[in-house]
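>> received
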Amino acid sequence: MDLHELWSQIQVWARELGLSQIGVSGIDLSSAEPGLLAWLEAGFHGSMDYMVKHGLKRARPAELVPGTVRVITVRMDYLPENTPSDWLRREFARSLHAGEAVVSVYARGRDYHKVLRSRLQKLQDRIAEATGPFGHRVFTDSAPLLEAELASRSGLGWRGKHTLVLSREAGSMFFLGELFIDFALPETPATSAHCGQCTACMDLCPTQAIVGPYKLDARRCISYLTIEHAGPIDEALRPQIGNRIYGCDDCQLACPWNKFAQPSTVPDWQTREGLAGWGIATLLGWDEVEFLRRTAGSAIRRIGHARWLRNLALGAGNALASGRISAADRLALRQALQAHATHPDPVVQEQVAWSLARA
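>> returned
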């Protein structure tokens, strides 16, 4: 099959598999290496030591998977199908409801690693049926790889000032995935950037983690602190985290391009019970068995019950100090915190004590 014809067919298969957009990138990412090294040298990776361990391999796909010639890049929108038209306003309002536990939108459904990987593997199978066996490898945020760089080079969007990939058609509310291949599909052209003079994402970040255009200090980022960071959270940053207990969407909610974010018909992204609109006190009541049951097949499960409690306890402390909750909610939060005052994990213990002292 002619490679241009094959590419046209691959796009059809991708749509049939629920993938929102695909592109093709080359593998020479050498121009991105200085920026990666500077980011690491600044310590912006925080405790993510694996970022240093893999180093420049992230910018060298052919070292990661020998024989790689091209990378098929994939965008998969994740807003739930029933997302209302005023979803941005509603999501912004959650941070004002001090007693509500706010989970990042992407994590309210099924674990995207599993969903996107499965669909990419099915796409690989269809390509193999048409071409015969070929060298390949599927990734979904699962390898040392400059995903955003590949996505922007292949035309899925451009790198926003918050460092996420932005699309004129879909904002930034989407997942990225990659299929490494050992044959030379025609590369798809990059798109131009459209952030202009806008600094909305930088201005709104609660912890000022976006330290400059296109520069993110993960050590200040709420997503990093609530998901990747295992120890106590810096006390200076705790009040700014508010009621965000898993991830943070604020830089995306501030971005004007997300008015074009696309709801997905994929059922895996539907919001699970307990992960939107529930109170912090209620979620603090989940024991480990309940936590594991509720988060089965979810990206949240990987942080474990203790870190989940740490995050909830922090949110409870901020709610108690906010002056924006009722007397009944205040009592419920204090009781929920006191139930974990002697938790075997010292990080949870310390966080609970800090939060109770804020009441």
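>> Residues 112-131 form the longest helix (20 residues).
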